[in-house]
Design brief:
The chain has 424 residues and is α+β, with helices and mostly antiparallel strands. It contains 15 helices and 14 strands.
Length: 424
Amino acid sequence: MISKAISWSIRNRFIVVVFALGLFVWGIFNMLDNPVDAIPDLSENQIIVFTEWPGRSPQIIEDQVTYPLVSNLQGVARVKDIRASSMFGMSFLYIIFDDNTDVYWARTRVLERLNYAQRLLPEGVVPSLGPDGTGVGHIFWYSLKANNMDLGEQRALQDWYVKLALQTVPGVAEVASFGGFEKQYQLVLDPVKLQYYNVSLTDVVDKVKANNNDVGGRKFEMSDMAYIVRGLGYIKNKEDIENVAVANREGVPVKVRDIGTVQLGGDIRTGIFDDNGNGEVVGGIVVMRYGENADKVIAAVKEKLVSVEKGLPPGVSFKVDYDRSDLIDAAVSNIKWKLVEEMSIVALIVILFLFHWRSAISIIIQIPITIAISFILLNLFGVSSNIMSLTGIALAISVIVDNGIIMSENSYRYLSEYQNQSKS
């Protein structure tokens, strides 16, 4: 079989050359299209399900949230393992799928089963899927430099302007905010006054929720004009909350300010984000979507930050805390340079040892063609250009030329023996 293939290749050299050039060009296009990253993504094919039930103990979360979800998700197709964690007010499920499972197919199956499992959970508890990222998806960290702005205003700027803008960048799965205070209106009620006015805490909560609403009326016509009747009731400041009536005592309305106070504060925090001991900062973590090109996504995020920075208040700018593109560029550039060095050294050794330029060229030309073809296989199996894959190509260069050297030497040996036999 091998002898027939060799004979056919010798008789059809033009076809072989065209086929090799075609593979080389195809490999170059695949090389340019191959995702670039510093490290390979060896994380498991997992889907995260997050459920929040504030104020409940880990045992209650385990019994009423985590266990029903785990027991119903175990029947999902291609699920290899399910891991769960219950903590104060939160439940996390990590559904591990087979390695060859498409991540978006898996998310669809999990979402279908969650719709069924929703009826088993307590009222108001809604599980949600985590972002479609991986364990190595944290590619870019940034923080806000705003010395003249408090942490609450910085967090509001991050959540309602910067984060929403960066989430539109192609390849970004999520922008997670960190640091600062999440602004909220806080009602501090006096238990003695609640008892005096005979008002329960539930009544206060229901009345405040009901008053934070716009009510639509119907349309009426007058003098050939149509008018829409609306009741505008959305809360705009803490004074609006203070004026909400929660009860009626002998014809006099009991308002929120009569039973407590309203203040503007921050949500409960479990930690802070410190900038090298220089104080707290507010920023975000950009999470890359599964299977994207990290280098291109980071470049797009940086370009978006430049446009977003133009709309920031005076004196506010961005500071880059972590940028994986630096590691990617350094690692890939180093490996590429080593590839060039190895190709040059191998070519020089082949020329010196064979001392025949035609044989040397026939061997050396295998190196770029084989490397280009390897990128076709990398794209086919979904492997990115990273330290491990490029190092493997570098280590295989000696193997690439080894067969060519052996074949050339054997060819010359057989030709020499044939010539000696002919002369004798």
